[in-house]
Design brief:
Largest sheet of chain A: 5 strands, parallel
Radius of gyration of chain A: 13 Å
Strand content of chain B: 15-25%
Strand order of the largest sheet of chain A: 2-1-3-4-5
CATH superfamily of chain A: Response regulator
Number of helices of chain B: 4
Helix content of chain B: 25-40%
CATH architecture of chain B: 3-Layer(aba) Sandwich
Distance between the termini of chain A: 10 Å
Number of domains of chain A: 1
Oligomer: heterodimer
Strand content of chain A: 15-25%
Chain lengths: 127, 155
């Protein structure tokens, strides 16, 4: 069954890269939704059915960790799998993301295969 | 620049360009940097810093305009002849600055709690005043499109 993906990154280029990597990896994606920060992403979640979120951390308006915290406070969104894709690699940041229950933490720059493998792992677990 | 810092900066810049853009950039040795006297053409200037610190750590990167176009096409995997917009070029420059400083911090202070500022970018003309009068540590990289410059003010 096709799944809907929300990509959250303030870089339009990076959103495009992630979308293309997922598309060429053969996943059965219904629709890609995009947001430029956490605030916009919450709006998308409110309006669309989303099965998977890929989010950057360092973004204006609302950063990725605050966004995930807000997701986790909400009954409907709290169980949506989230993968962080970010340059932020400090242990404090990774620990905070993991404490919020994210399913993966990918550091930029990344090889396309890394995203593919992480998504395969998540899809396998949710099947 | 002390050899350890120069090494980290060089490795990070090369990793970012090779991994995300399949592009190779070669650092110019410190003893040869004096031979670079001009920076012809226009450059995209990306800048990013570190939040919440008393000292002001800032990274500036100057990428030749044509190179930024090529990197953006590679990143966006453009398959048409429409080219790239200035907005996309600015966006690519900001993302490069973000990845370079983020990875420098990851390599030099993994346990740290620093967070990055939101990057900025703009198209500039002659970059000589930025580079020559900056007074901060910098590295030149040789590329297929000319010299690329990275400045790192450690605060």
């Amino acid at each position: 069954m096709a799944f809907n993906v929300l990509i959250v990154d303030d870089s339009m280029a990076m959103r495009s890269v992630i979308r293309k990597v997922i598309s060429i990896s053969g996943f059965d994606v219904g629709t890609f939704f995009e947001a430029g920060n956490g605030k916009e992403a919450l709006k998308v979640l409110n309006e669309q059915w989303i099965d998977l979120v890929l989010s950057d951390i360092n973004m204006p308006e609302m950063d990725g960790l605050t966004f995930v915290k807000k997701m986790r406070e909400h009954d409907i969104y709290k169980n949506i799998p989230v993968v962080m894709i970010t340059t932020e690699g400090s242990q404090a940041c990774i620990d905070e993301a993991m404490s919020l229950g994210v399913k993966g933490y990918i550091q930029k720059p990344f090889m396309p295969e890394v995203i593919k493998e992480k998504l395969e792992e998540i899809m396998e677990k949710t099947r | 620049m002390n050899p350890a810092d120069r090494n980290v900066l060089t490795v990070v810049v090369q990793e970012v360009f090779e991994t995300m853009f399949f592009t190779f950039v070669d650092p110019i040795g410190e003893d040869e940097m004096g031979q670079v006297t001009s920076f012809p053409g226009r450059y995209f200037h990306g800048q990013i810093g570190v939040k919440g610190e008393d000292r002001k750590r800032v990274l500036d990167i100057f990428i030749p305009e044509e190179m930024t176009g090529s990197l953006t096409e590679t990143l966006l995997r453009k398959e048409d002849d429409k080219g790239v917009s200035k907005e996309e070029l600015i966006d690519t420059t900001k993302e490069i600055a973000n990845m370079v400083l983020g990875n420098i911090l990851n390599k030099t202070n993994k346990e740290g709690t620093q967070r990055l500022t939101t990057p900025t970018a703009e198209l500039v003309g002659d970059i000589s005043p930025f580079v020559k009068d900056s007074g901060v540590e910098h590295i030149y990289f040789e590329t297929d499109w000319g010299i690329m410059v990275v400045l790192f003010d450690r605060g």
